[in-house]
Amino acid sequence: MAFRSRRELVTESWSAHAEALLSLAEKAYPSLDGTAIDALVNVQLLQSIEDPQLQYLVRRAMPTTVAESVRELTVQQTLQSSLRRPSAVASAEEWGSPASIMDPVVSSEPGALTEIESRLDNIEQSIRQLRQLVISNGTENVMAVNARRRMRNEPRERLRRRLQCWKCQGYGHLARRCPSYSGNAGGPSTGTERMAWNN
């Protein structure tokens, strides 16, 4: 099944991946309601995270909806990428022995302090960008998922409104549930019902 085996593509954002999973889930399980589809997609989205550290961090936040998962994935991935930049993290060779990591003085070189300050500035800038990203894009992700949920429920309502009763010529119900027919109390009639569609 394509829904269960779908992984995030390299060029795909987490919100696009969630949309693709949502579309596949709707096709695979057309009879489920929006809440059940959202729960299925949320579980599959969390399972599709290939980086174990990222998966742990997102699961630790305990997102309950697809929108929360996408938001948390975006936040954690941005934090990880900012901390993994060469300018933000020093390699083991730069720091030297494990004992030197614990020393308050990192190095006796004159440029070491300015390098550390520039790394801290880069981390602070990444955090500011991350906050802006969450503020600006967080609501868009939630709105996109909620809009899909509304679109999924609308066709059923339109179908229900198109039904026409042949007994009273009213719309929205069939003859077996006709409110104006007095013989309705005994349940469905003997099978003489017809369904007329309002086209």
UniProtKB/TrEMBL annotation:
User: Which residue intervals define the domain CCHC-type in the entry?
Assistant: 165-180
Residue stretches in coiled coil:
none
| Classification via SUPFAM superfamilies | Retrovirus zinc finger-like domains
The record's keywords, sorted A to Z, are:
Metal-binding, Zinc, Zinc-finger
Q: Which Gene3D superfamilies match?
A: Zinc finger, CCHC-type (4.10.60.10)
One Gene Ontology molecular-function label: enzyme binding
Q: Does the keyword Zinc-finger apply?
A: yes
> Does the keyword section mention Lipoprotein?
no
Which named protein is this?
CCHC-type domain-containing protein
Q: Which organism is it from?
A: Trichuris suis
